[in-house]
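Quick bug: LysR family transcriptional regulator output formatted oddly.
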Amino acid sequence: MDLVGSCKAFVSVTEAGSFTGGAAVAQIPQPVASRRIAALERHLGERLFDRSTRRAQLTPFGRDLLPSAQRLVRLAEAMEHDAQRARRRPLRLAVPDTSTTRDLAELEAQARTVEVFLEFRVAGPAERAELVRTQEVRAALVAVPPEDGVWTVPLGLAGEAEPDEAVVYLETLRAGRAAGARRRVWVQPEDDVPHVRDRVFRARDAAGLLPAQVEVAGTLTTAAASVIGSADLLLCSADQARELGLAWRPAGGVRLARGYDVAAGLGDDVGRVRTPLRAAIARCLGASLAAD
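Here's what came back:
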């Protein structure tokens, strides 16, 4: 027997003075209210209402039980209110600094439609993983090799000048005999992870560039500032290049991409973020989705 539901029907009928009115207050059909009260009477072993009158008149037993039923209903309503408030508690999610405020706002708005209420913590790749480990956030979009990721962001090279070719080869940055500043590729902190950085370094060495021609910047702003007004290139996504007003091309001869997955302290939080928000996170990251 649904004890709480039966007590709600009992209290509603008592307060309305009729089974029809009580059913309307409880927002259930009148026959359902009657069945619930009959089940409660069987459970308790006594009649709650005097059926000999047209009004819903309490028996002495019903009057004695009414205060307990009212307390139970109030407690159940308070619990439902607390549960609703707990469901709306923000889920702190650590995210890369590569997404714009608009990207994050659209992700948060989409999450609300599935009753997931996000609060963002912007952090670098290593810090995001550490924030999950120390439980300072409930979940994080962590950097993983692209072949292991749920989301993949292709990377290329962007600069102020529009390239003539469809791809940019690192060999074109080799210094000639003429003196002058050597062009560099700037790697932003989001890509200072082994599966991106090490591939870039290997491609640099294979192209015959000097070690200093591929440099990891302390911030994305520093990396972008080093490219603006120079012939240097920024390793970035196509979306980032558009935001910065740079011309973007894929890197020739090497596949460079970011990979992302969700990490969380609780498995349920992984599912709450990864499954219903899969497409929304892809849009936020400027990513493609891995095949299932």
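Actually, after a second look the formatting is fine. The chain has a mean pLDDT of 91. Closing.
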